[in-house]
Amino acid sequence: MPIDIEKALASKAWPFEEAKKIIDRYHGQMPEKGYVLFETGYGPSGLPHIGTFGEVARTTMVRHALEAMTGWPTKLYCVSDDMDGLRKVPENLPQPEMLEANLQKPLTAVPDPFGTHTSYGEHMNARLCKFLDHFGFEYEFRSATHNYQRGDYDAALLAAAKKYDAIMGVMLPTLGEERQQTYSPFLPVSPKSGRVLYVPMKKVDTEAGTVTFDDEDGTEVTLPVTGGHVKMQWKPDMGMRWAALDVDYEMYGKDHLANGKVYSAICEILGGKAPEQFCYEMFLDELGQKISKSKGNGLTIDQWLRYAPQESLALYMFQSPRKAKRLYFDVIPRAVDEYLTFLAKYQNEDEDKRLANPVWHIHNGNPPSPEELGVGNLSFTLLLNLAAACNPEDESVLWGFISKYMPGATPATHRYLDALAKHAVFYYHDFVKPTKQYRAPTDLERKGLQQLAEYLRGEGANVTDADELQTKVFAIGTELGFENLRDWFKALYETLLGQSQGPRMGSFFALFGTANSAKLIEKVLNGEDLAAAV
What we know:
Largest sheet: 5 strands, parallel
CATH architecture of the largest domain: 3-Layer(aba) Sandwich
Helix content: 40-55%
Strand content: 5-15%
CATH superfamily of the largest domain: HUPs
CATH class of the largest domain: Alpha Beta
Oligomer: single chain
Number of strands: 12
Distance between the termini: 49 Å
Shape: elongated
Number of helices: 26
């Protein structure tokens, strides 16, 4: 949707700040090639994970910001480095013996351990594309194997042969003394074994565009650098790719930060202009360690989508990209509720604040209204706590309460809310239920629970207003003389729900129903084992 360009230029939202770099790159004029090229790289050696998606999502946010500011055409290439040799067997894949037998071969020459595609690389590429398509990303998938074999990189590779010494001049200072003796930016593919060889070059013919080396059996071999006979080491490969494709913008993780100048220098040696670059922090697992595709030590894409809608994942990617963040199951509920909160705020904000609101960037400037989602004032946390109280096997149990709380709402008419209910049940059973620990109330807490149950059975029996119920909970805690009312609410969470944190109790009682809430309290007062019920 159209935006005020001056407000966008003044916006502190990081996608607009990044888009401004591209505008300055071309001095406010559309590139001669007729479009701006964004690129993301994908290493398909392990199963796709959320970090891979995050790079595409964030790049897309910058792309859309630029389009909204300038109207320039853009493209996004998602390039898979599937010609890389398989260096080690990932820990979480089937048929490890077969993979072991194919080490060092290009990923597109390694058989598929899953048995669904012609190669390991193609299987991983298909998984990536399927996910990106599911999210509706606009992109062009590029296979490094195809780019090398069909000649997309030929001109840049021939230039690399001519500029071999200059490239070595950039690379050698970054290497240890021992590696310097055998290093070559070119990695030939053995005509005999099919493996990617890390061997020194005996000769680089700059005019013929060939390299000469000793194959694994000691035979001297000469190959053209074009046509997929040779690939480049990963650092020179990045710079070569930038030059060959004329890339304007690329993001990469912090582990690439030290090499950014190397990529740029090689790109410029080959006659290209280094793209604008953005370095984001890495995701961490529950132990604070970097997430690794090969180890599989973090959330997978499928896992996040089991427990939450895709918009919550997009929000997580938008927030603080230059800050290291834990990417584990416990971040999901907050991400869902923050998305709903930002969406509700958006409706009443002026354009300046809308351009800074994450939902503008998540939805490409056209976020849905809360009415379209039909969630009302229900939060994901509230649904989780409803599940904690009634221990549902599926979302139909939650709908028994939701339909009373929101008359006329059904799974068919409120599909987004139904999806949230499904997610809440999955999350409850997998993460909340196993950790629930109930405790008996103290004497003071018991007195408060008795008063609360009497109110819900009597004067408040027909109250459905969450604020009114919340006011009563506050009043009882105040009358009991709790020095800190947080202790009163914590007591409610621990005795009624078996957890140290919980929802706004007025909202919970309104959703669960005053009669059901009174019954739950009476079970606690009677000493019943709520843990046994779940």
